[in-house]
Amino acid sequence: MKASGFLIVAAYLVGGCASETPSKLLDDYEEVDTTTVLDAPSSKPGTFSPEHRDAVLRGEYLVELLGCGSCHTDGALVGAPDMDRALAGSRTGIAFTNPLGEKYPGVIYPANITPDNKTGIGEWTDSRIANAIRAGIGRHGSRRLASMPWQGYARISDDDVAAIVGYLRSIDAVEHDVPDEVEPGERATHPFVYFGVYRSK
Ligand code: HEC
C-alpha cells in the first residue's frame, strides 16, 4: 500500500480560565523519556489473610499488566505520571470527538479509582466496580464510552476481576477530584489528548 498509516497522540492545550493560563496548566508535568515505566502503588499484604494476600498481589500484577495507571494516574497520558497520586484520576482528559474537525471536542477524564469515599470508588460495591471494568457501566447505569477500554477487558475472568477489585481496595485512598466530562461544543478548561488514526493523502 502506498500511504502509510500511523497513530497520532497529540496533547492539546485549550484556553483555560483567566487564572490558569494554558502554559501554567502544564507546570505540573515534565518531559520524560518514553521508556518511563508506569508502576502501580504497592499493596499492603501484611493486612490480609494468606488467600486474600495472594489475590491482592495478583490484582496488583493485573493492574500493572493491563495498564490501568496509564490513564488513571495524573500526568501519565502526557508521559509524566505523578506516582504520589497513582490511580487517583487524571486531570488531563481524552477527547472522544475529533479536535481537528471541531473547535470544542467532547472530553472525558479518567476517574479516581482509589478507595476514597468522596472522590474515588470507596463507596462502590464490588459488582459495580466489576461492571465498570468489564462492561463499561458508568455512574448512571448506562454504558460508557470506549475511552475506558472495557471492550478489551470484557473477558477478564471472575477470579481476576475480583483480584483487581481487591487490589484497588487495598491501596491508599487519595482525595483527588478530576474535572467533569465536557460535552462536544463546550470549552474544556483542562488539557486533553486525542487518539486518532491518520493517513497521508
Ligand atoms: C485508555 C484509558 C483507560 C485505561 C487504560 C483504563 N481506564 Fe478506567 N476509565 C477511563 C475513563 C476515561 C473513565 C471514565 C469513564 C466515565 O467517566 O464514565 C474510566 C472509568 C473507570 C472506572 C469507573 C470509575 C468512575 O468513577 O466512573 C473504573 C472502576 C475503572 N475505570 C477501572 C479501570 C481499571 C481497573 C483499569 C485497568 C484494568 C482501567 N480502568 C483502565 C479510562 C481508562
Order of strands in the sheet with the most strands? 1-4-2-3
Shape: globular
DSSP helical segment count: 6
- Count up the domains: 1
Low-confidence stretches: 1-20
Bound molecules: heme C
Distance between the termini: 12 Å
* Subunit arrangement of the protein: single chain
Instruction: Bin the helical content.
Output: 25-40%
Mind sketching the topology for me?
Elements: E1 5-12, H1 22-25, H2 50-65, H3 69-72, E2 93-95, E3 107-108, H4 126-135, H5 150-153, H6 158-170, E4 192-199
Parallel strand pairs: 2-4
Antiparallel strand pairs: 1-4, 2-3
Helix pairs in contact: 2-6
The protein binds heme C (HEC).
Heme C binds at residues 63, 66-68, 70-72, 94, 108, 110-111, 113, 121, 129, 132-133, 138-139, 144, 147-149, 153, 164, 181.
Short description:
With 201 residues, the chain is of the alpha+beta class. The protein is 25% helix and 10% strand. The protein has one domain.
Question: How is this structure best described in words?
Answer:
This protein has 201 residues and is of the alpha+beta class. It has one domain. It contains six helices and four strands. The chain has a four-stranded mixed beta sheet with strand order 1-4-2-3, with no helix packed on it. Helix 2 packs across helix 6. The two termini are 12 Å apart. The N terminus is likely disordered. The chain binds heme C (HEC). The site of heme C (HEC) has 25 residues, from helix 3 and helix 4.
